[in-house]
Design brief:
With about 240 residues, this protein is an alpha/beta fold. The protein has two domains: about 5-100, Rossmann fold (3-Layer(aba) Sandwich), CATH 3.40.50.20; about 105-220, UDP N-Acetylglucosamine Acyltransferase, domain 1. It is built from four helices and 24 strands. It has helices spanning about 10-25, 60-65, 85-90, 220-244; strands at about 5-10, 35, 45-50, 50-55, 70-75, 100-105, 110, 115, 120, 125, 130-135, 140, 145, 150, 155, 160-165, 170, 175, 180, 185, 190-195, 200, 205-210, 215-220.
């Protein structure tokens, strides 16, 4: 047996991704969806929207051995813990080629734009021109990313977000539903912009901003701040190794 796709997670985002995969197959493309993996034992052996939950996330390596060509996509995360996707990807330790990129057939992705491994673009989202989306990014329905936007690995762009041209979302940033981000603004790594916010300037890393115009509310949650610390430590280690 070979090929197919497994979705890690069985919550709302994972279920939406499953529907995107099914829609792509209806239009004649995309892999066969084998099922979900989720660490909630209560879901094991059940079906979610008609898709079976095969078991816990620990099964991923065995499935990859059994099915050459199998691809994985990690579909977890919420405003309460938007760092969980990064933790799972780190836990799996898989090479990029094991991850699928899922694009709903109604998404509009320009020929000059690029989307990284493990990322998901849901229904009616738009990437207009020279947009760069990193790895393991979630772009929710009807989000609009305009010219020259850059979206870092593990970022989340929630439903109805509008990014002006040249915006940069750094690694792990979360932009909540309906938020507007002014052209050329930067949302720092592992920061969260609240739903409906209007961002007129740069948001520093590791903070929560809300309102219109957006303002600082508090530091980001502990899980996001831990990822920020890990990234900083890795950057220092990499810099030291490059000088040797």
């Amino acid at each position: 047996m070979s090929g197919g796709l497994v979705i890690v997670g069985a919550g709302g985002f994972a279920r939406e991704t499953a529907q995107a995969v099914r829609a792509a197959r209806t239009f004649g493309g995309g892999p066969e969806l084998l099922g979900h993996l989720d660490d909630d034992p209560a879901l094991h052996g059940r079906a979610v929207d008609g898709v079976p939950v095969l078991g816990g996330c620990e099964l991923v390596h065995g499935l990859l051995r059994e099915r050459p060509g199998l691809r994985v996509v990690v579909c977890v995360g919420s405003p309460r813990d938007y760092a969980v996707r990064a933790r799972l990807v780190r836990r799996f330790g898989l090479p990029d080629q094991c991850y699928a990129t899922v694009v709903h057939p109604t998404a509009a992705v320009s020929a000059s734009s690029s989307v990284g491994p493990g990322s998901v673009l849901l229904a009616h989202c738009v990437l207009t021109a020279a947009v760069r989306v990193g790895a393991h990014v979630a772009v929710m329905p009807q989000a609009v990313l305009t010219h020259d936007d850059e979206v870092g690995d593990f970022a989340t762009v929630a439903s109805g977000v509008r990014l002006g041209g040249g915006v940069r979302l750094e690694r792990g940033a979360y932009v909540g539903a309906g938020a507007l981000v002014r052209e050329y603004a930067v949302v720092g790594a592992w920061s969260l912009v609240g739903m409906g916010a209007t961002v007129l300037g740069d948001v520093p890393p590791g903070e929560v901003w809300i309102g219109g115009p957006a303002r600082r509310l508090r530091p980001a949650g502990s899980a996001a701040l831990e990822e920020l610390r890990r990234d900083a430590a890795l950057s220092v280690t990499t810099a030291e190794e490059s000088r040797r």
